[in-house]
Amino acid sequence: xxxxxxxxxxxxxxxxxxxxxxxxxxxxxxxxxxxxxxxxxxxxxxxxxxxxxxxxxxxxxxxxxxxxx
Length: 69
Hints:
The chain is mainly α and 69 residues long. The protein is 49% helix and 6% strand. The protein has 3 helices and 2 strands; from the N terminus they run E-H-H-E-H. The protein has a two-stranded antiparallel ribbon with strand order 1-2. Helix 1 packs antiparallel against helix 2. The longest helix has 14 residues, at 7-20. The protein starts with a strand and ends in a 16-residue tail after the last helix. The relative contact order is 0.15. The model has no long low-confidence stretch (mean pLDDT 87).
């Protein structure tokens, strides 16, 4: 299953990507890809599974927010 954005949503994502291109090009790239490709829900995994796959410790309430995956 794939979520596909309508043309207005795609344009909004692309506008955000353009605004962020100089300051945060990685986020801009992700926004542009989302606009063009949508989201493949079959490939989505939880933050906890992602952290485990990257061999990072689980988050708890004492972890600083800057270390959120």
